[in-house]
Design goal:
The structure holds two protein chains of two kinds.
Chain A (H helix, E strand, L loop, with lengths): L9 H15 L5 H27 L6 E10 L2 E9 L1 H24 L6 H20 L3 H19 L6 H32 L14 H8 L9 H16 L8 H4 L5 H10 L4 H8 L1 H4 L1 H4 L13 H22 L4 H23 L1 H28 L12 H4 L1 H15 L6 H15 L5 H26 L29 H16 L10 H7 L13 H25 L10 H5 L1 H8 L4 H53 L5 H19 L2 H26 L1
Helix pairs in contact in A: 1-2, 1-4, 2-3, 2-4, 3-4, 3-10, 3-16, 3-21, 4-5, 5-6, 6-8, 8-11, 8-14, 10-16, 11-16, 14-15, 14-20, 15-16, 15-19, 15-20, 16-18, 16-19, 16-21, 16-22, 18-20, 18-21, 19-20, 19-23, 20-23, 26-27
Chain B lengths: L5 H19 L4 H25 L8 E9 L4 E7 L1 H20 L7 H20 L3 H22 L4 H30 L4 H10 L1 H9 L7 H19 L8 H8 L2 H26 L1 H6 L1 H20 L4 H22 L8 H39 L11 H4 L1 H15 L6 H15 L1 H25 L16 H19 L2 H18 L2
Antiparallel strand pairs in B: 1-2
Helix pairs in contact in B: 1-2, 1-4, 2-3, 2-4, 3-4, 3-11, 3-15, 3-21, 4-5, 4-11, 5-6, 5-11, 6-8, 6-9, 6-10, 7-11, 8-9, 9-11, 10-11, 10-14, 11-14, 11-15, 13-14, 13-19, 14-15, 14-18, 14-19, 15-17, 15-18, 15-20, 15-21, 17-19, 17-20, 18-19
The chains are: A mainly alpha, B mainly alpha.
Chain lengths: 699, 518
């Protein structure tokens, strides 16, 4: 299997090929388009499994394959593929979850007129995302990063005739690009300092000891280590892509895209790219601590960069969970939930390292994809209704969707023991409790856990349990009209959509095996020492405390939610939380008015700058030019007047020259180019004569 | 070489074509167009031969032709290409047939229109190959004259005013450039650009200025600064550098769109080429001394033009500002290489990166910007000359292929990886950041705003509900596909394999960097 490393590019190339061919297909060739895309990602999945198997072998080392992309100056820019547990686990997850979502989409998008285009974009996305995780070069990663952004833009705006979708697509691209500017600066800085962007290059890569030692040996503005400054710049990119505060505003709007897109891109894969990035360059983030030249007593307990990561994650986790409590759109609730869970992943990275953050990334990918696909099935069943207050009772007529959704919901809420979400979240909480820098993130995360259970209970009640009294499909909600069926009864979705749900639900449960304190397989796998893995209770006393606390928080959320909402029968009634805390609930429903705040500050400022740039152009600079022109003309007229009336006409020669000036200035106004040309020709002739004479005499 | 003076024939082919077109196109617009396209293709073939025979391993000038011309003045007919100019020659050869094919058949005086177009190409080829300032300057001005008439006679509204503004502006710049170079000639007795660069490097130019121009009463430094300022103004207007740019939006918007394609695609490169060929080699020290002023101008050009583009209503004006923004990155790069920091091996690497990036950017911007203006020509053709951003809406529904291909060109201009714009900009930023961190950081605002105004344009023109006026808006025809599909393929190929271009320029870049270090 050694041929696999140099040929790792095949994994992204297969979907890319499908995308390229798909772009050439005509609209009616739906069947071919779906076969191409599903087939390509299926093959990619098989290859990914092969790659994964390789990383399981006894002495699995990180394997890289580097090559030159182009030469410039005396160096070349080298790219490469990398295969290590981090990459392999992402590859399997993306192709597996992605493949299921592709299959689901065949059913979901069946009646869309742009079906072939949809699968072309989906395949493009899969190619870029797979390219991102196999990159062994930060620039290469960035390039794929931008391409997943493009695919996300195209898919959010897939129903481009809807102005809201077009606006959301633009907002997503631009908001993430704000972070990407920092990312780009981080890249060029790192490139300058280390001379390479390859992560691993047999000792010469930018994440290896030599380069890191160089980075921690220098300081920059404010006494900050260069490694910290670069880490923070790179983190800007992660904040944008992974929807962290303050750049989270694009992700809820991104729900304008078709629901499979929300599941694949805005829940399972692309938005986790930021988390993956930090996990990939973790040695850099941790360099201050791990490779330090300073005496150990003067060091902070945790590297500055990781503190920023942790706090950003903690604040996001709680804020987004709070906002989710007051939302009524089924997909927006899940979107804020995603933002919040991404926050947990960053806490995990910050307090516990890549294994902790990545495990939550993987479990979240499964249960959140499951939830989104379930939501899609519900929306489908209710004929494009997305407001949970207008749903209800779907437990009865959508049994499969209900059962699988419940699995996803319990995993997300962190219901104990048999759901993977519990174990991954628990690991984060446990690490946060042991974090030496502060206990703040632990309590924020605990609070978030309770809130998560609460808002998911609320959603479950409205969608599945609340007795259905009135269903009005013509409620004027922004329906897509794409596949609205004439029959008005809600119904279960076809099996091409429910089978992926069942498979995902099974995985959500099964995954919990891999990271229990009894058998912390994933930790060992990601750290690369599977051989030392021992079975048995590996936790300590704090672990039990954490598990208890988290169970209490979850129980509080579930119980509180049920107690409050199970009495709500009428969807139009005031929310029970609103009756108790009207001010807070209002603010949360308005999403804390962050969008409005940006609109009033940054956007207004840039509009003012734009208008003034344009204004200065039209009037400012032009006025300067006009002033010069008028001055020249005025001067000419004054001289001429001076000439004619004051100085005796005997000075004919000088008059003539001044009049010449006047005429020359006049030319600025009348624009007869023939005259310019004559002057030009004359000038050149004179020049030749003058130069011939002067040049000779000078020599 | 086997004795074929390829650069001379390349330059003269369009001139001959202009004459032929003028003669045979008097009665028939079709004949004029056919003749012009044929001659531009002939020139393109020669350029292709030139590239194939270009030795990518050799440093220095190739295809040199040198003949004594005016012995009394020590003026030689001296033409050659090297890595700095080869891409621009190819670009000019590519864009003229592209623009000609997209120009609607001119109704009045077609022979004049197409003839002037070819004359413009001669000016371009001449500027990019001449190495003696004497005829370099003739070509430089020669390209100006046809552009003036093309705008004045075939332009849109307010064409007279715009043409005059264009001419006077660039002419003033040309005059100061000419004066500065005359003074240099007085001091050195040569117009040979290569020799002048050598003299400047050895310090002889400075000494000569002092001795030969003593009568001015100025010190060597002041004299150098003055001459630099004069020469700089000539290029600054042409590129343009803010605030010497106010002619550009009006001119680009008013010129017939085929001409705008050449103005932005090829003629704007003349100014940057002037910086590379004349200003930096001959006036490095005065330029270094003025960086405190030049750098803010580059940043201003990048940022202010990107912001200004955001509020433009006319698609051509929007693209005009975008074009300025893109050339601003070249300016940033060219000023950054002169920064005194990192005067070591590490610095040489960064400078090489910047210069490679600048040369890539020149070529790629030429392709992308010309293609985008080409799409505007299609809009004008289909809508009876309308091109306000608010005139359209939802066009992707009726013209998906047009929307898709134009979308690719827009994303190339935004700098999306995988398309041609990315690598050049990345290399510029990669090198410029360590050399000049603060200006480079501010300049990234331009990258952000570019995405903002381009995506807004897509949103308003292609997305949303279909404007009921355009339900019959035709998608690309087969003939148009034949033009735009190759352009798109080129963007993709150059995005994935920038090495194709970089291998042509690399020896010249290394040589240029070597000469920068004192």
């Amino acid at each position: 299997m050694t041929w696999l490393i140099p040929n790792l590019w095949l994994i992204p190339a297969l979907p890319l090929l499908a995308a390229g061919l798909g772009a050439l297909l005509k609209r009616p060739q739906q069947r071919l388009a779906s076969i191409l895309s599903v087939g390509a990602i299926g093959l990619a999945f098989l290859l990914a499994c092969g790659a994964f198997a390789q990383t399981l072998s006894e002495h699995a080392e990180r394997q890289v394959h580097n090559f030159a992309w182009f030469h410039f100056g005396e160096t070349s820019l080298r790219l490469g593929w990398i295969l290590d547990p981090l990459t392999a686990s992402m590859l399997v997850m993306i192709t597996f979850v992605g493949g299921l979502i592709f299959i689901y989409s065949v059913g979901y998008m069946a009646r869309d007129p742009n079906f072939t285009r949809f699968f072309c974009f989906l395949s493009l996305f899969a190619a870029a995302m797979l390219g991102l995780v196999i990159s062994n070069n930060l620039l290469q990663l960035f390039m794929c990063w931008e391409l997943v952004g493009l695919a996300s833009y195209l898919l959010i705006g897939f129903w481009y005739h809807k102005p809201s979708a077009a606006a959301a697509a633009k907002k997503a691209f631009i908001t993430t690009r704000i972070g990407d500017i920092g990312f780009l600066l981080g890249i060029v800085w790192l490139y300058h300092e280390t001379g390479t962007l390859l992560f691993y290059d047999h000792g010469a890569g930018c994440l290896e000891h030599g380069a890191l030692a160089k980075l921690v040996a220098q300081t920059t503005v404010g006494g900050m280590l260069v490694s910290t400054a670069i880490s923070l710049l790179l983190f800007c990119g992660a904040v944008g892509k992974s929807g962290q505060v303050p750049l989270h505003v694009w992700l809820p709007d991104a729900m304008e895209g078709p629901t499979p897109v929300s599941a694949l891109i805005h829940a399972a894969t692309m938005v986790t790219a930021g988390v993956f990035l930090v996990a990939r360059v973790y040695p850099l983030f941790n360099a201050e601590f791990a490779i330090s030249l300073a005496p150990s007593g003067t060091l902070p307990p945790v590297s500055t960069a990781l503190q920023v990561v942790t706090w950003t994650g903690a604040i996001t986790a709680v804020l987004a969970a709070l906002i989710a409590v007051a939302q009524t759109d089924i997909k927006r609730i899940l979107a804020y939930s995603t933002v919040s869970q991404l926050g947990y992943m960053f806490i995990g990275l910050g307090v516990g390292g890549p294994a902790v953050g990545m495990f939550h990334l993987l479990t979240h990918a499964f249960f959140k994809a499951l939830l989104f696909l379930g939501a899609g099935s519900v929306i489908h069943g209710f004929h494009e209704e997305q407001d949970i207050r207008r749903m209800g009772g779907s437990r009865k007529f959508m049994p499969v969707t209900f059962a699988t959704y419940a699995v996803g919901m319990l995993a997300l809420a962190g219901f104990p023991l048999i759901f993977s979400g519990f174990w991954s979240k628990d690991e984060i909480l446990h690490s946060a409790l042991k974090w030496p820098a502060s206990k703040g993130p632990f309590f924020l995360a605990l609070m978030g856990a309770g809130l998560t259970a609460f808002y998911m209970t609320r959603q479950m009640w409205f969608v599945f349990f609340r007795p259905r009294t009135d269903f009005r499909p013509d409620s004027g909600h922004d329906a897509h009209h794409v596949h609205a069926a004439p029959d008005s009864e809600p119904h279960e979705s076809p099996s091409i959509m429910t089978i992926p749900l069942v498979i995902l639900a099974a995985c959500v449960v099964l995954l919990s095996i891999f990271a229990t304190p009894v058998w912390p397989w994933f930790d060992a796998y990601l750290a690369g020492h599977l051989s030392h893995l021992h079975v048995g209770w590996s936790g300590d006393g704090t672990l039990v405390i954490v598990m208890l606390l988290s169970v209490v928080a979850v129980a509080f959320g579930l119980g509180g939610g049920w107690a409050l909402y199970s009495r709500v029968q009428d969807g139009e009634a005031r929310d029970p939380v609103e009756t108790r805390l009207p001010g807070l609930f209002g603010a949360l429903r308005e999403r804390l008015r962050v969008d409005e705040f940006y609109e009033a500050t940054i956007l207004r400022l840039s509009r003012i700058l734009a208008v003034s740039s344009d204004w200065i152009d039209r009037f400012g600079w032009s006025a300067c030019v006009d002033l010069i022109r008028l001055l020249t003309i005025g001067l000419a007229w004054i001289s001429r007047y001076f000439d004619q009336s004051i100085i005796n006409v005997g000075f004919d020669a000088s008059c003539e020259s001044v009049r010449g000036w006047g005429r020359l200035a006049g030319l600025l106004q009348n624009g007869q180019a023939q005259r310019y040309l004559r002057i030009l020709a004359f000038g050149i002739v004179m020049l030749i004569v003058a130069l011939a004479w002067m040049g000779d005499s000078a020599r | 070489m086997n004795g074929w003076p390829i650069l001379t024939t390349l330059t003269l082919t369009p001139l001959l074509g202009a004459l032929m077109t003028w003669i045979i196109g008097r009665d028939s617009a079709r004949a004029a167009r056919a003749s012009a396209v044929a001659f531009s293709l002939l020139a393109f073939l020669q350029a292709a031969v030139l590239v194939m025979r270009f030795n990518t391993a050799a440093t220095g000038l190739q295809f040199v032709e040198r003949h004594a011309w005016i012995p009394a003045l020590h003026v030689d007919y001296f033409v050659a290409v090297d890595g700095l100019s080869i891409l621009l020659v190819i670009l000019s050869a590519l864009l003229i047939p592209f623009a000609l094919a997209l120009s609607p058949v001119a109704s009045n005086q077609p022979h004049g229109y197409y003839g002037l177009f070819l004359l413009l190409q001669t000016g371009l080829f001449g500027t990019f190959t001449a190495l003696d300032f004497f005829h370099w300057f003739l070509y430089w001005e020669l390209s100006l004259v046809p552009a003036y008439f093309l705008i004045k006679l075939w332009g849109g509204e307010n064409r007279r005013a715009a043409a005059t503004q264009f001419f006077v502006y660039t002419f003033v710049g040309s005059v100061t450039l000419l004066l500065a170079m005359q003074a240099v000639y007085l001091a050195t007795g040569t117009f040979d650009l290569i020799r002048l660069a050598d003299l400047a490097r050895s310090g002889e130019l400075g000494r000569n200025l002092q001795t030969k121009l003593q009568w001015t009463g100025l010190s060597s430094g002041a004299l150098g600064g003055l001459l630099f300022a004069g020469a700089f103004l000539g290029f600054a207007v042409k590129i343009p550098v803010m605030p010497f740019h106010t002619w550009l939006p009006d001119t680009y918007a008013t010129a017939p769109t085929g001409v705008t394609m050449i103005l932005t695609g090829a003629m704007s490169k003349m100014g940057v080429y002037g910086l590379l060929r004349i200003l930096i080699p001959i006036f490095p020290q005065p330029m270094r001394d003025s960086l405190g002023l030049l750098m803010p101008l580059a940043v201003l050009t990048i940022v202010a033009s990107a912001f200004a583009a955001f509020v433009q209503k006319d698609l051509k004006r929007l693209l005009a500002y975008s074009s300025m923004n893109h050339l601003g990155y070249c300016l940033l790069g060219l000023f950054a290489v002169l920064e005194p920091s990192f005067n070591s091996a590490a610095g040489a690497g960064e400078r090489a990166a910047v210069l490679s990036g600048v040369l890539l950017q020149l070529f790629n911007h030429g392709i992308t910007a010309a293609t985008l203006f080409g799409f505007i020509a299609l809009f004008e053709k289909r809508s009876g000359g309308r091109r306000a951003i608010g005139d359209f809406g939802g066009l992707r529904q009726v013209a998906p292929v047009l929307a898709g291909l134009m979308g690719i060109a827009i994303f190339a201009s935004v700098g999306l990886p995988g398309l041609n714009g990315f690598v050049g900009e990345f290399l510029i930023f990669k090198g410029a950041f360590p050399l000049a961190p603060v200006p480079t950081t501010i300049a990234t605002l331009g990258l952000l705003m570019t995405a903002v105004f381009y995506l807004t344009m897509i949103q308003r023109v292609f997305a949303g509900p279909l404007n009921s006026a355009w339900t019959k808006f035709p998608d690309l025809s087969r003939g148009e596909m034949a033009l735009f599909v190759p352009a798109t393929v080129l963007m993709l190929v150059l995005g994935v394999a920038p090495g194709l271009l970089l291998s042509l320029v690399n020896p010249a870049v290394l040589e240029f960097v070597k000469r920068l270090t004192p």
